[in-house]
Amino acid sequence: MFTRIRWFALGSVATLGATVFVVNRARTLKEQLTPEGVARAAASLAADTMEAVGVRLQRSALRGVPDRSEPDAG
To answer: 0.70 exceeded by the pTM?
Structure first.
């Protein structure tokens, strides 16, 4: 019987701790959600996307270039 009470108490404490953590994290995120922060995140995402597209274009362009290290078959 005491085992069940112990597990119930541990579960309750863990749930309470997780709830406090989530609420505090949500408050922190809410404070950081400013127009400047959103603009900064959008600009960072756009820059990362442009960089990824550039790398992809470079790789696709290199696929069409013949490899000069191999001798010609003809």
So the answer is: no
